[in-house]
Amino acid sequence: MLKVVLHAQNQIMPFCEPARELRIQNSPLWLHQRNLLAPYVTREMELKQGERLQPVREQAIVYRDNLFFDKYYIQAFMDQAIKLNKPVRAAFRSDDPAFREHALPLSTSYTPAGSLYLADLWYYPNGPVAGAEPLVIDMQAREIGYYHVPTYMGDRSGDLVFQVPLRAMMAIDSWVHVFIADMVFGQFATGARYEKKANDELSFKLKIFSKAIYEGRQVLECSEVVKVGKNCVIDPSVVIKARRPLAIMSPLMPAL
User: Fold this and answer.
1) Which H, E and C letters describe 91-123, residue by residue?
2) What are phi and psi of 194, to 5 degrees?
3) Average pLDDT in the chain
4) Hey, which residues does 111 pair with through a beta bridge?
């Protein structure tokens, strides 16, 4: 499959770099995209702003390089697109909670189309052509609170929450989107998927309990739910515990 990368030239302030060069989940966005799409493509082509794509007659995926997506979204998108076997373009419903709350604000990359918003990601079974149909992939948002408003301060709006997707995709048009992609659509989404798996799969839940018993630790302290990422520096005196039930230590959160 041919991969065609469209360059987004606008720089993200205050970094003064295009989105493709910014680090998301500890790697440049362009490298993150390349790694996730590697199982699907055999060759690639990059088009700078103003360049025209020469006619091709082969299976192709086309995207703008300011897009962040995870493997769960891109797998669902590719599976559906290949199954449909017709030109499609990634789209979001305007009422999708994760898109509405975190991806759409401050963004300039989406094209309104009725109740949908179109993203710069296409699939073509026989080369790029006009008239791609919208393909909506549900991001499967989970409501996760991040701040509890005291009762005496609360109103009808209730607690403040993040809408955490199990399948994530968004355009990086602002420094705020870098935070959303890295934390809400990245670290928090990993925890949400872990929590869902623990709730849905009895065998996985028993595995956690058995590991806690074997190690002589509380459930939230066992090695099955506390994961330490690469390049972390952790003081020997700290005690690491999971919260929801997953705690992930990454270079963005190097120590407690």
Assistant:
1) EEECCCHHHHHHHCCCCCCCEEECCEEEEEEEE
2) -65, -45
3) 85
4) 118
